[in-house]
Amino acid sequence: MAKNSSTAHCWSRTLRRIVGAAKNIEIQKEYEQHLKGQFAAADEDGNGTLAFREFAGLLQQLNIDLSEGQLARIFDEVNTDRTPAVGGEQVIDEQEFLEFYHGLLDRQELREIFRACTHRCRGLAMTVEELHQFLTLQQRQQVRRLVSQPISPGCI
Ligand SMILES: [Ca+2]
User: Fold this and answer.
1) How close is the Cα of 77 to the center of ligand 1, in Å?
2) Cα(147) to centroid of ligand 1, in Å?
């Protein structure tokens, strides 16, 4: 039992933080599971690794649209351990994929935007409402930018 209201308040705040941290860990675990699911879905032959074609399919699934040359370069960068699969083909394993995906998101400017837009689970996850707010704000800014551009002759 807390001695006074100040102590009680302190305990309550500390407990809320602990519960909040536990929720964040849970969200991170769920996110990791989601990524692993994406990896498994892209692994068409089910050998636990992604060959170049499977990797290209996965990026397409994630709406990352790249040329063949860009894909080849990224595949090469992601493939850090260079362990060939059976048959000598270079492949990407789950760990390499997770590091690549985290690396995509781990950019200072993105972290700042994400942090600024996430309130409930600051910097870790975005709620549907927060995403809606973000998109609405972004769209307004795009419209403002378009409107502020000089109208070229021939435009209505
Ligand atoms: Ca495979």
Assistant:
1) 18
2) 48
Q: Report d(CA 116, CA 107) in Å as an integer.
A: 14
CB 83 within 8 A of CB 75: no
pLDDT at position 134: 80
99 Cα–ligand 1 center, Å? 18
Distance 74 CA to ligand 1 centre (A): 17
- E strands, 17-78, are 49-50
Given the structure tokens 């109208």, which residue do they identify?
151
Which pLDDT score, from 0 to 100, does residue 154 have? 44
Average confidence (pLDDT) per 10 residues, the chain, 156 residues: 74 80 79 89 94 92 84 92 81 92 74 80 79 75 58 45
Instruction: Give domain 5-106's CATH number out of 3.30.9.10, 1.10.238.10, 3.40.50.620, 1.10.150.130.
Output: 1.10.238.10
Which amino acid would we find at residue 154?
G
- Residues 66 and 59: beta-carbon distance below 8 Å: yes
Reported as half-sphere exposure (CB side, CA atoms, 13 A), residue 155 has a value of 7
Burial of 78 per CB tally in 10 Å (0-12, 13-18, 19+): middle
